Amino acid sequence: MILATSIPQRGEISNLRNLGYAGYLTKPVRLGNLQHMLSLVAGFQAGSPCGLPLLTEKNIPVRPNPGYRVLIAEDNTVNQRVATRLLEKAGYTCDVVCNGQEAVAAVQQCPYDCILMDCQMPILDGFEASMQIRGLGMDLVIVAATAGVTVDERRRCHESGMNDFVAKPIQAASLLDILEKQLLGRVPRFSCRTLELSV
Fold first, then answer.
1. How far apart (Å, rounded) are the C-alpha atoms in residues 23 and 63?
2. Same domain, yes or no, for 32 and 74?
3. What is the pLDDT along the chain (199 residues), one digit of tens a residue?
4. How many domains does the chain have?
């Protein structure tokens, strides 16, 4: 058993193991933490949680992402580095391109699981690039990265074929939650060598 609690109380937590709980999560529960904890608890045998440390968000072993490859389409070099560092730390494999035209070319060379697509890029913007990618019949997750979070901007993202969007400046927790939600149940595509399209 796992307890999901909004405000854990010290006395409450100390008694959880005696009550047969394997661990607890604090609300709001992050999808990744829930998945990790469930996979760990599923391996417990009857009665064993009482003899093991209580699992919490702080001591869930971090597992690498199961092979997902993300294409970062972004023309700003600082944003490229920030997104790459954030995603690689979370276990994703990343490639970077500088505009929408390069993004369209990249997805035809490599089976990406997801694109983090900046909406405002030179040569070809993220909206047009997304429409061209969808026109190729490719079933991959496209997450817009945009400074505009208005109703019109959201509508335009949807109409371009994007699955979701994250507001700039990108917050790590928000982006990782979106990727976990969008990639849930998807089998990672075949691995391929890193592209060298960006300057």
1. 18
2. no
3. 888 887 656 556 667 777 777 777 878 777 777 777 777 777 654 444 445 566 676 655 554 556 799 999 999 999 999 999 989 888 899 999 999 999 999 999 988 999 999 999 999 999 999 999 999 999 999 999 988 767 888 899 999 999 999 998 888 888 988 998 899 878 887 655 445 444 3
4. 2
Q: Which amino acid is at 27?
A: K
Distance CA 142, CA 88 (A): 18
**Dihedral sign computed on CA atoms, order 123, 128, 130, 133:** negative
Query: Could you list the residue range(s) of the whole structural domain that residue 18 is in?
Result: 2-51
Q: State the pTM of this model.
A: 0.67
For residues 47 and 103, membership in a common domain is answered with: no
CA–CA separation, 116 and 178 (whole Å): 11
Structural domain contains residue 121: yes
The token pair that represents 1 in the structure block:
């058993």
